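Because showing beats explaining, we let one protein speak, sequence and backbone structure tokens together, and leave readers to judge.
___
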Amino acid sequence: MATQFSINDNRPWKSTFFTIWSGQALSILGSQLVQFAIIWHLTKTTNSATTLAIASMMGLLPQVLLSPFIGTWVDRGNRRLFLIAADLTVAAFTVVLAILFTFDLVQVWHIYLALLIRAVAGGFHQSAFGASVVLLVPKEQLARVQGFNQALYGGLNILSAPLGAYLFSVLPMQGILSIDVGTALLAVSIVFVTQIPQPERGKGAAAFTFWQDFAAGFRYIMAWRGLVIAIGLVMGVNFFYSATEPLTPLLITNHFDGDAGKLGLWLSLFSVGVLLGGAILGMWGGFKRKVVTALFGLIFMGLSLVIVGLVRSDMFWVGLIANTAMGLFLPIINGSFGATLQTVTAPEMQGRVFAFVTSAAMLVTPIALIIAGPFADRFGVQPWFLIAGCFCGLMGVVGFFIPDVMNIERKPSAVFEKLNPSSERVA
């Protein structure tokens, strides 16, 4: 097991963190290339919206249903080993899928299964890496690191689609899949030789069962009023915002009378906004109170959505500017909120807290998709963007008037000491 040490010591952290971070970035790029190639393969071979919807659900359901359990496993185990096991699992199933493509034996259900396994492994990877960051990075640098993470995803989104399209035109599917295997193995090799700290668990913690740790994580969250209210705000915002992405192609074609070129420009500039927003947060770090940064970001993103919901069909460039602004404010919101939780949450609770928040946020997405489609068919696409923008902006304003939300960065040490099973007497 990795040596345990405190995040408050004076050890150099940049070389260790950014070495791991670079390997993970390459692994994410490989995964995104495979994701693009698989979706395009299904589109070309089946031409079925139902098939594509099921494929999307294979990647979504593990996040919704399994995240709280995954977070508990991560908190109980060695996070370094979870990172290695997750990447090796992805590599192994990708190799199997590549073999099936090589011998022309692949069927749609094979792809569904591979996407499901990759999503489960990705859930473990995301939870373990997120919970490790707080032990690798000084607390005062967490917001900047979150900003760089958000910029990374924005940059990879800009790169992965055109690169994936090019690779799909010059390589067989098994060739693209082999790239993902290579990047996953590279990430594994970096983590294998790198020391990742483990949170210290109190005496007797090992005697507690998985379900006792799971329940302790749930009690920890429920006793933290500010976090509970914040999760409610996140669920409300995500309900309206998450449905805007699948409605975007209809916005471009039906409202702006656009083609694939306009859609590509729209999506690319959104990713440019994400890249810029992440870079700004990475260099700036946000206000001293990170929750204030997140709430202001939510207000301005809401205003951007309102503009998209109101812009005339002959003013596509105005919509482009507002759409880019949406991308810019998104990493500022997510990065600041994530840094807030990383700063305040007890290290040994990180996996469970982030997993519960992720699961709650994703839980509303399928419901939103079921409602947004018929709503847009009846009333048009723009009204959904308008409602989403008004709700996001309103939630940002309301957050400033809720004391528990504004004080969420005050460490709930009393709550943790009372509820953490590691500090309780073993019966």
User: Anything to note?
Assistant: The chain is about 80% helix and 0% strand. Confidence is low (pLDDT under 50) at residues 1-10, 421-427.
